[in-house]
Design brief:
This is HTH tetR-type domain-containing protein. The chain is mostly helical. It has helices at 7-23, 31-38, 42-48, 52-74, 81-98, 100-111, 116-120, 127-141, 150-169, 180-191.
Length: 197
């Protein structure tokens, strides 16, 4: 007889995996650690996930969907692609300030070569996430953004936003001393073709 899936247990497994990835490298997270953290046997993990990679994929999808939905709900409507992108950057920064663990987990998974296929297959992600990818792709198609692999653009954006939020969280400086507008300009300088502010 097959065991019935409990939605609460599924969330506990995902949450425990997020906590472990936040504290250590993705490659170091095992289903044994997750099971111990949740208080279940390791075999119970496989009721919910095919394997460890499937678990990591589900964590990634949940965290990216939450980030993307936040950006979708928070961004200010803009009349042009540049304005839309600027608004998305501002919303991403607010997400980083409010959800530092999520952004850390997303970035760790994106940086792990074992999970690069997750970036290449955005079909599993929600419509809000597609919005971010569409902005980047349109920016490249129109010549607004540099013609480099999308993962390089994503890393430039996320790593700078995460570092700004981390520095504020750890008291290195305040948001008033180092306003996000400077970081946004740094990102613009890095990925835009030509200058524009």
């Amino acid at each position: 007889m097959m065991k019935k899936k409990n939605p609460e247990k599924y969330q506990q497994i995902i949450d425990a995996t997020v906590q472990l990835i936040d504290r250590q490298d993705v490659a170091m997270v095992s289903t044994t650690q997750v099971a111990k953290k949740v208080g279940i046997s390791q075999s119970n993990i496989y009721i919910y996930f095919k394997n460890r990679d499937d678990l990591i994929k589900h964590v990634f999808i949940r965290e990216v969907d939450a980030m993307s939905q936040f950006v979708h709900d928070t961004q200010v409507p803009a009349t042009d692609l540049f304005g839309q992108f600027a608004s998305q950057l501002d919303a991403l920064f607010q997400f980083a300030l409010q959800h530092p663990t999520s952004l850390n987990v997303i970035q760790k998974i994106l940086r792990s070569y074992s999970y690069q296929h997750l970036v290449a297959k955005p079909d599993d992600l929600n419509a809000a996430n597609a919005e971010l990818l569409v902005t980047l792709k349109k920016g490249q198609q129109t010549g607004l953004f540099k013609q480099v692999d999308l993962s390089l653009l994503q890393n430039t954006i996320l790593s700078n936003i995460k570092l700004q939020a981390d520095n504020i969280h750890h008291g290195k400086y305040t948001a008033a001393e180092q306003p996000f507008e400077r970081v946004r300009q740094l990102i613009f300088d890095a990925i835009l073709n030509g200058s524009r502010s």
